[in-house]
């Protein structure tokens, strides 16, 4: 019979405890990301300088935590948590309806990279941003020309280029709605960020992808430079 005076336990072994702890950790991270997204879009409760690094950190933590609870490593006898194949199934199993979290996870980048900023600031700040953006683009193009192909080599460089561009506005300008305008050029870079995000750190893009990426980066840089 059930004794209400005895603590109920989900597990009796250290292995199953680790699995339950991993599930609890992932659950809390997903809820935290949703709270961060809501704070960012609601009356700017969190500014860009605080939002971007926190979002990036949460995305990385979630990606790591998912590996601990997926079906390949989740079984711990009959007392382990339900096995899941991916984060979407995890959210479904545990009744998490977090559309903002799902959207951010599907992109794998903070909203500050997904959408351009206002391009505010003038004088010394603008000159500094122009110099940083130029350097970021040149570094990225050099990396591609030197045959760097792995995600962990390219993703940080591309992210920095897009982030710097965003500080100067990132879009707009005549013709921004098509591929030849600033907006279209920038969207291609964001698309590459998303593509790289789907890879493992050691995965590499192939030669055709590298050539296309370099073409898109050079086109974006030239379009941005002409807009100054």
From TrEMBL:
GO terms for cellular component: ESCRT I complex; late endosome membrane. InterPro entries: ESCRT_assembly_dom, Vps28, VPS28_C, VPS28_C_sf, VPS28_N, VPS28_N_sf. Signal peptide: none annotated. Belongs to the VPS28 family. This is Vacuolar protein sorting-associated. GO terms for biological process: protein transport to vacuole involved in ubiquitin-dependent protein catabolic process via the multivesicular body sorting pathway. PROSITE patterns: VPS28_C, VPS28_N. GO terms for molecular function: protein-containing complex binding. Residues 1-115 form the VPS28 N-terminal domain. Transmembrane segments: none annotated. It is a peripheral membrane protein. It is found in: Late endosome membrane. The keyword Lipoprotein does not apply. Keywords: Endosome, Protein transport, Transport. Pfam families: VPS28. Residues 125-228 form the VPS28 C-terminal domain. Its main location: membrane. The lineage of its organism: Eukaryota, Fungi, Dikarya, Basidiomycota, Ustilaginomycotina. The keyword Transport applies.
């Amino acid at each position: 019979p059930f004794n209400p005076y005895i603590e109920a336990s989900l597990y009796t072994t250290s292995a199953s405890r680790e699995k339950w702890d991993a599930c609890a950790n992932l659950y809390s991270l997903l809820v935290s990301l949703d709270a961060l997204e809501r704070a960012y879009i609601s009356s700017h409760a969190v500014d860009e300088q605080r939002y971007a690094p926190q979002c990036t950190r949460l995305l990385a933590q979630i990606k790591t935590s998912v590996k601990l609870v997926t079906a390949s490593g989740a079984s711990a006898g009959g007392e382990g948590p339900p096995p899941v194949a991916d984060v979407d199934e995890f959210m479904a199993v545990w009744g998490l309806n977090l559309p903002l979290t799902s959207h951010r996870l599907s992109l794998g980048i903070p909203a500050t990279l997904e959408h351009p900023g206002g391009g505010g600031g003038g004088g010394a700040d603008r000159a500094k941003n122009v110099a940083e953006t130029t350097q970021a683009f040149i570094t990225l193009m050099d990396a591609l020309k030197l045959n760097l192909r792995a995600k962990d080599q390219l993703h940080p460089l591309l992210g920095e280029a897009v982030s710097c561009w965003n500080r100067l506005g990132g879009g707009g300008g005549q013709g921004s709605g098509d591929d030849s305008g600033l907006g279209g050029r920038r969207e291609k870079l964001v698309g590459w960020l998303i593509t790289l995000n789907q890879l493992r750190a050691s995965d590499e893009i192939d030669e055709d992808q590298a050539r296309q990426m370099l073409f898109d980066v050079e086109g974006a840089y030239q379009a941005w430079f002409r807009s100054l």
